[in-house]
Amino acid sequence: MNTDHLKQEIIDYSKDIGIDKIGFASADVFGELKERLRRQQSLGYQSGFEKGSVDERTEPERLLPESKSILSIAIAYPSRIKDSPKSTKDERRGIFCRASWGVDYHVVLREKLEKLSAFIEEKFPDAVNKVMVDTGELSDRAVAERAGIGFSGKNTSIITPEFGSYVYLGELITNIPFVPDKPLADGCGSCTKCLDACPTGALVQGGQLNAQRCLAFLTQTKDFMPDEFRSQIGNFIYGFDTCQVVCPYNQKVDFHNHPELEPEPDVAKPKLKPMLRISNREFKETFGHIAGSWRGKKPLQRNALIALGHYKDVTAVEEMIAVMKNDVRPVIRGTAAWSLGKIGTNEAFEAITEAMEKETDEQVLFEMKKGLNFQQEFSTT
Length: 381
Ligand code: SF4
Fold this sequence. Notes:
Helices cover 44% and strands 10% of the residues. By secondary structure, the chain is α+β, with helices and mostly antiparallel strands. It folds into two domains: 4-79 and 100-174, no CATH class; 193-379, no CATH class.
């Protein structure tokens, strides 16, 4: 079998179906990654969202016993919103990180990978393939690095020479022994912009991330956000991409190759106040198709409350008081109380004091006390 010819046919076909870059890697064990993951695990640096054991994540054979090669694909996404709506004093807006703009990339990439798989099977009926996007066991980034899609930056993103790091990655494991492509050389050099810009020190050192301090991860948790990170998320309600924004490789890239990945301005930068009262049905209709909805509405509403506090949005006080008093979810009531304290109007403090009389949840009461403590800050400034 002439795999070189098939490889070229696959490369040509990938362009036809809108894949921006494709690379071929061996399906050998990811030995270095295995060691790194074990280290991350022992340090408690993982997010908890990882799928599968370390062995499954680093040994393609465990996922497809006949695996010989892995095809890595990259799809470029936009870095700027055309006609971006402005946040005004009366109507503050939050923002989803770039990787959550447009239709959920899992859907978009999976569709392309399925097409690619069907194409390969048509050309080579004995092919056995398995496709994966992000939620699979394999590390998209390790595969992409090995397949020469990009180099692994100090911010842990894969940086392509063509599209910077604003690319979605997916892969297809196959039993066809393709000649692998060569990995790219490291391109960070002495640059440390991402490490310097990370507000929480989550980038422990070049290429090593403590996910427990990474704001992108913390915006997706469902419990109370630890205090030290609340002032740092700003108006991000999902994800956080400052370590990519500052990267020199991303300064002039803004690709709009895929209509389905185009950000809808009012979804990518939603008004914050309406998010507080959004029904499940409205949430599904408005945000259900984007990647940032995967954890449901609670984390986004919690983050919206923190963002309103960050803005000191006095126009939101009335609605936030209603949330603090009536929402059935303690995380939401407590965060509303904390953010009301941040805003610091008399009305806000009075409402917290009043709500404390009826509140029975210990954690919410704790947040209410923290909210009231801001009063001292206001009286000393
Ligand atoms: Fe590498 Fe600099 Fe980009 Fe960080 S900001 S990933 S150090 S090039």
